[in-house]
Design a protein that fits this description.
19% strand; 6-stranded mixed beta sheet; globular; alpha+beta
């Protein structure tokens, strides 16, 4: 297993914010490793299995492990309408559990719960569709008139901290240490309302100098902000061995841009990534593109990406 160090992740995800940081860390503790792709079925690790059962009691009686989805896509009811993305989802043959994480009081969108439940019931008509809200301070009331095929529950981040303690207690080495550090952050920073000082964290370099796709996407988002501002096309300075590798990265970056746009973030909602090759018109814009003949580029479009 390889649980990310929350001290390092806080620096990497400084621009993304506290809610995204919490999402990545909790998902990592469920899987036993850092998630990489949205809307992709993952498996629980042994500690993650116990953690889920402590957060969601029915999970322990569901008969088998669910497929775990990080950033789960709920398609719109009608073409042309916006899709929705829940932070987590757990899919058993007879049950879908949609999980939404909230660390900021102002991030609760009106009728969000109703909408997610409605989409879940529509797309999964033959199974139970349950919803779990994880919040810091207040516990939102359940929507009225819920159908029999669904159940709404809430819990707090303090309860999640207790569950992580219980599930990861006795795990030695870096994984256990990183789990304990995240629990400590929940209690000393999140639950006490300590400000998320984005600019201050970004001045502190990570303790390790490793590059992951998540790191490169974070850098790509900063370049996308420049494209949104001046409308000038730019190429990402990454070396892709094949066009397929570039297409995979473009897809992951586009998913993140769509996710940001659907949450109301308009900073880079007019920027779209695409793949340039030597067979396209024009010349490479980066040394990496000159060497490999492949680039992922960012361009400005008048229409929003979502």
């Amino acid at each position: 297993m390889a649980i990310p160090d929350p001290t390092v992740e806080r620096v990497k995800l400084a621009r993304a914010g506290r809610e995204w940081f919490s999402d990545v860390m909790l998902t990592s503790l469920l899987l036993g490793h850092r998630p990489r792709r949205f809307n992709t079925p993952y498996q629980l690790c042994s500690q993650g299995r116990q953690l889920l059962s402590l957060i969601d009691a029915p999970a322990g009686n569901s008969g088998g492990d669910p497929a775990v989805y990080w950033e789960f896509k709920l398609n719109a009811l009608q073409p042309g309408h916006e899709n929705r993305w829940s932070d987590l989802a757990f899919h058993w043959p007879d049950r879908l559990l949609i999980v939404e994480l909230k660390t900021e009081a102002g991030s609760v969108r009106e009728r969000q719960v109703d909408e997610y439940i409605q989409l879940g019931l529509h797309h999964y008509p033959d199974i139970r569709v349950d919803f779990l809200y994880i919040t810091r301070d207040r516990v939102p009331q359940a929507p009225t008139g819920l159908p029999e095929r669904t159940h709404y529950r809430t819990t707090t981040w303090e309860h999640v901290a207790q569950a992580i303690d219980a599930a990861w207690n006795g795990v030695y080495g870096e994984d256990g240490l990183h789990a304990a550090r995240f629990v400590n952050w929940i209690r000393t920073d999140l639950m006490t309302g300590k400000p998320w000082k984005r600019d201050e964290m970004m001045t502190t370099p990570p303790a390790v100098d490793t590059r992951s796709q998540a790191d490169e996407i974070a850098d790509a988002l900063r370049i996308a902000e420049l494209v949104q501002e001046d409308h000038k096309q730019r190429a990402l300075p990454y070396n892709f061995a094949t066009r397929s590798d570039a297409e995979d990265f473009r897809s992951a970056l586009r998913e993140e841009l769509v996710r940001m746009a659907t949450t109301g973030d308009e900073r880079i909602n007019h920027v779209r990534p695409w793949v340039w090759t030597v067979s396209s018109t024009g010349n490479p814009l980066t040394p990496a593109g000159l060497a490999s003949g492949v680039e992922v580029r960012l361009s400005y479009y008048k229409a929003s990406i979502a």
